From TrEMBL:
UniProt signal peptide: none
Domain Helicase ATP-binding positions: 32-203
Protein name (record): RNA helicase
Domain DEAD-box RNA helicase Q positions: 1-29
PANTHER family: ATP-DEPENDENT RNA HELICASE DEAD, DEAD-BOX ATP-DEPENDENT RNA HELICASE 47, MITOCHONDRIAL
A Pfam family of this chain: DEAD
UniProt keyword ATP-binding, yes or no: yes
UniProt lineage: Bacteria, Bacillati, Bacillota, Bacilli, Bacillales
Organism: Fictibacillus barbaricus
Amino acid sequence: MSFKELGIQDAFTEILLQNGIGEPTPIQKETIPVILEGQDVVGQAQTGTGKTLAFVLPLLQKIDSERDEIQGLIVAPTRELAIQITAEVRKLTDTNSEINVLAVYGGQDVIAQMHKLQGKVHVVVGTPGRLLDHIRRETIDLSGVSTFVLDEADQMLHIGFLSDIEDIMAKVPASRQTLLFSATMPDEVKKLAETYTKNPRDIQVKTKQITLKEIRQRIVETTDRGKQNDLVQTIRLLRPYLAIIFCRTKRRVSKLNEALQTKGYNSDELHGDLSQAKREDVMRRFRDGEIQFLVATDVAARGLDVEGVTHVFNYDIALDTESYIHRIGRTGRAGGKGLAVTFVAQKDRRLLQMIERETNQKLNVLKLEYM
Ligand code: ADP
Ligand code: MG
């Protein structure tokens, strides 16, 4: 089954091919035809399964570039994710279409953004806070929106964006098509979907832990005091190409990053306290391979799709299984092999057992000779 057979135009399939994307993933196969038909969709598939293209392709295909208004609105939980989705849209529209896309997120110059919005913009990708800002200032007109996408809905609610999302939805015509995508479907997301979609097609792709299977997962038994040293030893032996290291708090991120830099490692930090410019700069340098180790908090790294991430280190163990899956999903994206290493001190044992139980697997101790 090809993208063409799903109803995607040659103009797009050609660009996909140039980017090495020929065969649709399961979630793309199931959702694209339904979205093209105009039905609401509630789509669930694990991280790294290609949900972005699943909604971006049909959304773009429905845009009438002659109509001078915002027709597609995509809401994402973080700035990084909004930037990433925007880049994906640009890749598909830059060379061969008149479709214009604008990213709307915090930390940018509001005036410049407003100017851009006066121009011809067909697709807006934004974070809830900044979108609401524009709505309140009446600097954005969403009355022409015919397709509304809520991406990473579980994460959106996790961060506490529910009321923002409701306020945004109220400004989008009721006749719109609504698409909601999520890696997991907790009750709050189901409720949101029930409230805001009309007779949606529920599409769940049970990947039977495809992502998890493609990622080798190991643990390193450690102590709180010995952890930093154990991490350095592990890095030395594994020699990652690009790695993300997760810590529980911003302070722990900064502390560990400093320690790594002092030891001569090429690392930098990503968390919510950095300025927008700094965050973008760090992300760009990591993508370009100028930074080898990205030390990050959960929220900052959520949804990030960076090619070539060979290793994820859970320096601090994830507090729940969802976040464990999200974290390790940063490596081994779309088929590439990855290794996720979780550092486990005595007091982390209970969390480890919970993760093992909920992902139906036993995590083995890292044996360096096999890596
Ligand atoms: P998700 O939103 O489900 O976490 P993404 O949309 O971020 O996943 O996609 C993950 C990665 O897979 C991206 O690098 C994307 O370019 C790639 N990808 C998407 N669709 C395909 C496909 N059909 N074939 C190969 N790679 C794909
Ligand atoms: Mg996604």
